[in-house]
Amino acid sequence: MTAPAAGLSGARVLVGVGGGIAAYKAAHLVRGLVGAGAEVRVVPTASSLEFIGTATWEALSHHPVLTSVFQDVDEVAHVRHGQQADLVVVAPATADLLARLRQGRADDMLTASLLVTRAPVVLAPAMHTEMWEHPATTENVAVLRERGVTVLEPAVGRLTGPDSGPGRLPEPEAILEAARAAITAPRTADGAVARDLEGRHLLITAGGTREELDPVRYLGNHSSGRQGFALAHAALARGARVTLLAANVDLETPPGAERVDVGSAAELAAAVEERLPGADPDTDVLVMAAAVADFTAAERAGAKIKKDESAGEGEREEVPTLALRRTRDILRHSVSQRAQGGGPVIVGFAAETGDADTPALEHARAKARRKGADLLVFNDVSAGVFGGAENAVHLLDATGAELAAAAGDKTQVAHAILDALPSRPVPSAPVPWTP
Ligand code: CTP
Q: How many CB atoms are closer than 10 A to CB 256?
């Protein structure tokens, strides 16, 4: 495998636009790529210009647009753009484009660029359900994937006209994150994204749980779910199957992930348990990236908790005391369950702050030993990382020893975590579990 690019910032990204009504969504994608610091060149097909014209692409990419192989012939543009690209993203990729790419045609600027490039290629399909499900398209997609092209799963939903079903272009934010995952992924010798996680099934928890106190209030935390979602994108790019348990996450679902939304720690615990060994033996990695509440209300009030207004001027008001109880530690529980026979590789997270006596890393080493996960991803949150795009982590094994460190955007960190993933659980002393 060869080294991946550093990220989208400064990368040369060629955006191909196919002829479909969803072409307008590619405008948001181009804006997102430019916002991420990429150098974008847009190559629309002739039929896509019926939907969105060159002026839009030139204004958004800040560069002239190439529509024909007979433009800039002196500079051999039909070869140069594909050669120079660090990444190619096609959105929407129509059924016709998929067929032409599969055949290796080079009859317009976009297909010529795609035949020349050795950069990772991400195709975001959009078409009617019948076209997506046609055996010809199914076969074209399979062949392209075999060749190392990333073909995203289309979203399910409203299509052109009254129809609805699979075939909708994934939202631009989801395509952007998939592009970020592809450009930072490890590569094969011929430049394609390595599908080194093919055949593995990751169960990833993400976000922050909310514990209801009454019908209007909850105890929550600042987790945005970005790191867990970045892990899902990265794992999907590398060929894994992903189930994403999302606790209160306001992010687009990574194309191809099975997403289950949950609210509280108890709901998350139940959702994990349902999918662990015995219940779902093909889950072979559990990643606990979610920030799970350690305490929940001993009793949720059935009606809104009111303040006491009976106290007169200058008198002390009665302030309610919240009675809390411990939630299940899902990570430790999963590790202890596994000790009873088989089970997935388990990855935990530890967001720690240092204090006067103990640096954050020492707290994390102690947690690694306490939790017994195969891999503990520690990040120092003294300076605060919640909601941001960047992260810096140390990867510890169950003895607290450091295996690797990684820093960068959350997708780069995600790939580093996947690189360190053991292929099977690392035998360690069983961690006792007292519910
Ligand atoms: N975790 C869990 N269930 C809980 C609490 C935490 O599975 N009820 C998991 C988190 O998903 C994370 C790891 O445990 O992977 C560490 O979470 P963290 O909040 O840092 O640890 P705690 O066990 O809560 O320890 P403390 O708050 O005392 O530092």
A: 21
Which residue from 4, 385, 266, 263 is spatially nearest to 377, judged by alpha carbons? 385
Pocket test for ligand 1, best of 292, 374, 381, 431 (most atoms within 8 A of CB): 292
> ∠183-186-190 over CA atoms, to 5°?
90
* Beta-carbon contacts of residue 102 (< 8 Å; ≥ 6 apart): 139, 140, 143, 144
Active site residue 221: yes
Residue range 201-419, CATH number: 3.40.50.10300
pLDDT in tens, 32-54: 999 999 999 999 999 999 999 99
Beta strands in 77-179 (DSSP E): 87-93, 121-125, 150-151, 155-158, 164-168
Q: What residue ranges do the domains of the chain occupy? A: 12-183, 201-419
* Same fold: 12-183 with 201-419: yes
Stretch 271-291: mean pLDDT: 89
Mean pLDDT score of the chain, rounded to an integer? Answer: 91
Pocket test for ligand 1, best of 222, 288, 362, 380 (most atoms within 8 A of CB): 288
CA distance 187 to 149: 12
188-207 pLDDT tens trace: 998 899 999 999 999 999 99
Candidates 140, 221, 379, 391; catalytic one: 221
pTM score, two decimals? Answer: 0.94
The CATH superfamily assigned to 12-183 is: Flavin prenyltransferase-like (3.40.50.1950)
Task: Determine the distance separating the centroid of ligand 1 and the alpha carbon of 330, expressed in angstroms.
Answer: 8
Which ligand 1 atom is the nearest neighbour of the CA of 327? Answer: 8
Structure confidence by residue, pLDDT tens digits, 6-25: 789 999 999 999 999 999 99
* Ligand 1 pocket, residues with Cβ under 6 angstroms: 265, 288, 290, 292, 294, 327, 329-331, 348-351
Counting from 1 in the atom list of ligand 1, the atom nearest the Cα of 350 is 20
Ligand 1 atom closest to the CA of 265, numbered from 1: 8
* Model confidence pLDDT, tens digit, residues 52-84: 999 999 999 999 998 888 888 777 777 888 999
